[in-house]
Amino acid sequence: MKIIGISGSLRKASYNTSLLRALISLQPAGMEIEPIRLNGIPVYDGDNEKATGKPAAILDLDQKIRAAEGVVIVTPEYNFSIPGGLKNAIDWLSRGSSPLKGKRVGVMGASDGPIGTARSQYQLRQTLQSQESIVMPRPEIFVSTAHDKFDVQGTLTDAATLERLKKWLKAFADWVEKKP
Ligand code: FNR
What we know:
Blueprint: E1 2-7, H1 15-26, E2 32-36, H2 46-52, H3 56-67, E3 70-74, H4 84-94, E4 104-110, H5 118-130, E5 134-135, E6 142-143, H6 159-176
Parallel strand pairs: 1-2, 1-3, 3-4, 4-5, 4-6
This protein binds ligand FNR.
């Protein structure tokens, strides 16, 4: 089962990219999550789109999403919302026919705040609604106070979160396989 894993953070030491790495380390047999970062994608501009089309990174991501059975998006929260880079990537992908249409998607996120990206995840769910994605309703993963849950190398060390991720992956595999 091929899954595209998108981190909504651009920074190298990102908790969210680390959370995606933890997911990959726990992926069940038969699941293959390919991690994607969104660095270097220009801000959407309709004039540039007309002149030169979509950026190469978006064309590549579009193909990868189409070829995958599911997508997991691991998002930070910026000012109670989705980071601009992630929204920008979805805006580009949405032009023409969106590869996210009808795609089974899971969302989660980590922040150093107390509610672990709950607000940005719900805004992401709203944006994915516009793409007609089929987003797994639950279980939900809100990794709060991330500074206490990852070590300095970015390894997720919190046992309860690791356990939740395992359960989430099982539910997501079923969701992608459309069970029940
Ligand atoms: C933040 N951060 C933050 N955290 C949160 O829980 N709610 C918020 O609204 C915000 N707002 C916010 C705005 C901006 C511009 C920045 C840069 C940061 C803190 C954020 O959770 C923290 O920086 C995380 O480490 C970002 O995720 P990554 O990059 O570690 O994946």
